[in-house]
Specification:
By secondary structure, the chain is of the alpha+beta class. The protein folds into two domains: 39-112, no CATH class; 120-204, 2-Layer Sandwich (GMP Synthetase, Chain A, domain 3), CATH 3.30.300. The chain is 48% helix and 13% strand. The chain has six helices and six strands; from the N terminus they run H-H-H-H-E-E-H-E-E-H-E-E. Strand 1 and strand 2 form a beta hairpin. The radius of gyration is 27 Å and the shape is elongated.
Length: 212
């Protein structure tokens, strides 16, 4: 994904500023790489609606030819729905309501949430680089443990879209400068220039670990 052009500005993707060229195709590629697809949820919703419509059509058809219903007549089903909660135990009614609420919440969240993947773009005048947050965390952890002079197991870095949290456990008897670790991690971020640029927070544990 290389474009020898200036930075893309994508007005249609909030928070995603393409970095490789003013090509609309590249803009769509970058957005697809940093945002999860809604096709799966849309497909499930479409299948459920189609099945419900087909069932209602079949029930109406068998009723029109005078045959007994497969499960329940549409008019009987409508009457029972209107009569709720009469005739249904509170436990069954509550369980059914919870299931319906969970299904509705699933589709609602897929509709309103941005659906961003755990990825960042890296600024580059020639190429479009998309990197997983785990890769960013690994690079920042190496820089943090070098600044803190500790082992790999004593540093844990969590990268989210807007924040980098660096947790450091010092070696017993040694002091870790929070300012030095913060400066080192910020310098590493500035070199990589991820989009968006997250803030950095460093937590140094009060208790240390016994050195090898």
């Amino acid at each position: 994904m290389t474009q020898d052009q200036t930075d893309i500005v994508d007005d249609t993707a909030p928070g995603v500023r393409p970095v490789a060229g003013e090509d609309p195709a590249m803009t769509r590629i970058l957005r697809r790489e940093t945002h999860s697809s809604r096709a799966g949820a849309a497909g499930i919703a479409a299948v459920l609606v189609i099945l419900l419509c087909v069932y209602a059509l079949l029930e109406a058809g068998v009723r029109a030819v005078g045959q007994p219903p497969w499960l329940i007549e549409p008019t009987t089903a409508a009457e029972r729905i209107i009569a709720l909660p009469d005739g249904i135990s509170p436990l069954l009614l509550g369980a059914g309501g919870a299931v319906i609420a969970m299904i509705g919440l699933f589709f609602l969240l897929h509709a309103v949430l941005p659906g961003r993947r755990a990825r960042h773009l890296l600024r580059d005048p020639r190429t479009a680089v998309v990197v997983d947050d785990e890769v960013l965390a690994s690079a920042l952890a190496r820089r943090a443990r070098t600044a803190a002079n500790v082992s790999q197991e004593q540093v844990m870095v969590i990268v989210s879209r807007q924040l980098v949290v660096v947790n450091v456990r010092p070696t017993s008897g040694s002091r870790v400068s929070e300012e030095s670790v913060l400066a080192a991690v910020q310098a590493e971020l500035e070199e990589m220039s991820p989009v968006p640029m997250p803030a950095v927070r460093v937590n140094v544990a009060a208790s240390g670990v016994v050195g090898a």
